[in-house]
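YM 10:42: CSLREA domain-containing protein sequence, as discussed on the call
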Amino acid sequence: MRATNLNPLLLTLLVVACPHEAFAGGVPFTSDDLNLESAINSNAVVLDLLGNDDSGINNDDYKEVIAVCDINSSDQDCTGNSYSDAIGSVSINGTGNNNNVVLTSDGNASALFQFKYVMQNSAFSTGTAVAEVALSYVEVNSLSDSGSGGCDSAECTLREAIVFAANDGEASLINFARDLNGTIVLSNQLTIDSIDLSIIGPGANSITVSGNDQNRVFMVPAGSERFFMSGLTISNGKTFVNDSGAGILIENATETRFENLRITDNDSIQDGGGLFISNAGFIMINSEISLNSANNNGGGIAISGGFGNEVIIENVTISNNQSSNFGDGLFINSSSGQNTLLRFVTAAFNFGGITDNHIAGAGNVTIESSVFDPGLSIPNSNNITNNSIFKNLSDGNIFGSNNLTDTDDLFLEPLAEINNSGFYGHSFDTNSLLYNHVDNMIGNAGCEVTVTSDQFGNPRPTDGQCDAGAYEYIYIDLIFTNGFE
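YM 10:58: structure's back
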């Protein structure tokens, strides 16, 4: 059995059952395919060859890799502890039951690495299989921002990985080494000049990319298409003169999507302290924009655009940002033809400028199941608003159903980490107006259907109806959490 239609973004390890000539009384392998991941610049990456093979006898599932070799070697001649070719090398990692092999490769292009291995059971019966390894993604293994210019197993920085992806001529995936934790301090901004690039971080509490209060962190310019990024913290970006978007600037790009990002402590001399979207298609889900500032509009996030650009912000906390003008947390000024959806957004405790959150322009804006505390200024009359709560509403009107305006205290807790997720937000109790506020029969909330969890992984709904905002209340039994006294 051979691999067909390999996904270029994944490494596929295919175990192929050899003809039934297993020597020394061997037991046949299963024929199930085994799919794993590894990188072009793999460095002693463990491959679990035995994970779905059954060589056991009489309820004894003992199995051990005892040799690796070239695929053209006969079974009897396959006796080595290691094998290598121009693409990579593989060696046996330990002995005994359920041992593994490790892969290393310093290739600079996608490639297919093949080798044969011999497996043995407790009765010393043996069998062989062929492994096919498609090397196709890049792994960041260093927190440095320098490097030799190429990604290899010795060093691959995030900047080198992005340059590699821009030049490889195909869809590219950038991952991070499992044991890599800390902050990447940039000497200048990272520019995404690629088509079909995905950067998958290990989590916002594991890797931070910092502008060092000297540079913007990420720039996504015109010409970038289908850029996806997740699992990182973006911080300490700074712009000077007339530049916007200190954390991230997205300008005239198409199909940019962010998930599980934390954008915090960035400072823009103009608009969009954390994030500025200008005439771009953009989606952000399950993320946090906090503690950013702008000298003009949109301390947290600023959105400006025109016809044909769609922006979706869902399950996002926008908090403790500030600006010197309009929209301390959120600022939208879109022209006719741009569609913006705000769904399950909590914009809270953004202070400093003329308005704490501001939506203007003639673009189409849908506000669904969101919360604005202390409030929202909305001179934009092309809005459809449902299931949302505004402690204060000024400079305009909202059009829709099941909305609360000019309310009493919403009883939001201060910004704090929730569920040990690495993300910060505003929790609340059942006495808050946010609790069970969303009527799924009104508007386009998508509770439990389109939106199945909150920003922090709590399921939606947890108690009857969905709650408004980025957080879904969940009862925690403190007796079982803390133990009996």
